[in-house]
């Protein structure tokens, strides 16, 4: 089997590339390296620098490499940037995904996996979010992803495209073998930032908002280890290629941790007591996002292996430590 992994030089996509290579599959990574790093792509995979909307390039890759399936991770991911510059987000996440889907349909690709997000739910009222919640994103990022879900749904109905859209909650941690991890130039994610504070790459961090209607006043999130998330992708791919139904499903564990609980975990696991300042709310942050993960478990028989905050944090710290010590060069 040959899989085209778009965004495979990024955080989540590079873990997928490793997981597929580890299984003995052939992998072609297509990435424009706008936020990704070629060094994160496994050497056994082929890295092609290019844009997902380059129809000529993608059609040629599908034909020449014998691509069976596409795992589409490429995109722009910072919610606040999408508020400041929505058209760029609609272009990169929606318009360019449309081009990629069109190319995939024309080439009769057998399966298409899409990275969606909990941001499609907006500010839900429920404690546990199942997939039938209202879809009312509160950011252009969320809308840009929801529109891609809609294009996939309609392309499945009209052209018979086989697809799965996985709505990730908060992806965290790193490859337990230390081969790849989160390495964005301008970190925004809580665990990466706290890990940078613990390893001395920054001298302080902020907690955004302490007056939310949550037990300790800080936001609750469902942190899923990237390796468990990727296991769901591999299972989803097999499910589709074996004739399983298309589906949309949440990927999370079903329990939330507050910002302060995450910061405590990083301090406990690292043994470093870094400076933490309480700050105002960050615009666009819903108080709580926790997945009802029944559907993904049922459809794929998915069972997480790393559902433990200390383990997630330990792997994130180990990756950050390699970066700090220069053992990984980017
Ligand atoms: N990290 C999370 O917590 C999270 C949560 C929900 C959904 N997601 C989704 O998962 C996917 C991967 O996110 P990530 O955290 O790995 O981000 P990332 O920025 O590390 O990876 C995205 C990759 O896509 C590449 N890329 C961007 N636009 C491209 C284009 N037009 N053509 C080719 N390559 C392009 C980038 O260079 C980068 O390597 C994204 O679609 C994101 O929306 C991530
Ligand atoms: O330095 C920081 C960074 C984050 N936070 C807080 O930590 C929580 C988690 O924030 P992240 O930035 O780590 O993650 P988000 O929940 O904002 O975003 C994640 O989930 C979204 C879905 O809601 C999108 O999919 C997005 O791409 C993905 O990173 C939020 O309450 C945020 O305010 C801090 O207090 N300090």
UniProtKB/TrEMBL annotation:
It comes from Martelella mediterranea DSM 17316. It is an enzyme of class 5 (isomerase). Residues 3-252 form the NAD-dependent epimerase/dehydratase domain. Pathway: Carbohydrate metabolism; galactose metabolism. It comes from the Bacteria. InterPro entries: Epimerase_deHydtase (IPR001509), NAD(P)-bd_dom_sf (IPR036291), UDP_G4E (IPR005886). Its cofactor is NAD(+). The lineage of its organism: Bacteria, Pseudomonadati, Pseudomonadota, Alphaproteobacteria, Hyphomicrobiales. PANTHER family: UDP-ARABINOSE 4-EPIMERASE 1, UDP-GLUCOSE 4-EPIMERASE. This is UDP-glucose 4-epimerase. Belongs to the NAD(P)-dependent epimerase/dehydratase family. Gene3D superfamilies: NAD(P)-binding Rossmann-like Domain, UDP-galactose 4-epimerase, domain 1.
